[in-house]
Write a structure and sequence with these properties.
Mean pLDDT: 84
Low-confidence stretches: none
Largest sheet: 3 strands, parallel
Number of strands: 3
Order of helices and strands: EHEHE
Strand content: 25-35%
Oligomer: single chain
Strand order of the largest sheet: 1-2-3
Radius of gyration: 11 Å
């Protein structure tokens, strides 16, 4: 399962990102890929969310941008 996130990820977005990843990990616990290729800013709070998700099965990565 792929989760794509875009834009600025900061303290305000961390709860939403956490909930989205938790939902995906419950539905597909073996692996969730997180596409960070469209992220312009990644704050510490969201980095913590991503690290926690990675420890429970998410694979973080940057996919090549299409058409760029």
């Amino acid at each position: 399962m792929l989760v794509t996130v875009r834009g600025d990820l900061d303290t305000a977005t961390a709860p939403y990102l956490g909930a989205r990843l938790d939902d995906r990990l419950r539905a597909h616990p073996r692996r969730v890929d997180v596409d960070l290729s469209e992220v312009d800013f990644l704050g510490v709070a969201d980095l913590r969310v991503l690290t926690r998700a990675e420890q429970t099965g998410a694979r973080l990565g940057r996919l090549p941008r299409q058409g760029r």
